[in-house]
Amino acid sequence: MSVAYTTQSSDRRGLGDIGLVAVVDECSDGEELWRLARDLGGRNGDQDRARWLLTQASRARVVASYANLPDETWTAHVRRRLELDALFANHDLLLTGRIALRSREQYRPR
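^ that's the sequence the OP posted. Answer follows.
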C-alpha cells in the first residue's frame, strides 16, 4: 500500500488547512488508513484517529520518498471528510480516500 499526502490552502500563506491523506491503489477506498490509526496508533475516536493520520502524513512529507511527482496529474476519490474540533498541524479538515495517478492509468494493462 502506498500512501499519498497533499494539502490545500485557502490563502497565500500556504498553511494547508485541508489535508488529504489517501491510498494510491485502485482497489482501496482509504478506510485502511482509519484502521491503521486504530490498530497502530491505538486511537479509538475519529478526532484522535484523524490527528494521528495527519501526524504520520506530515512526518512522511519531510523525509525523502521513493518518488516525488510534482507534475503528476491525479484525481482524488474522497471517502471520508472530517472537520477537526480544533486546528491541528495547520489543518482543520481531513479528507481520506484514494488517489488515482494519471501515469498509472496510462500504463495499466488492458
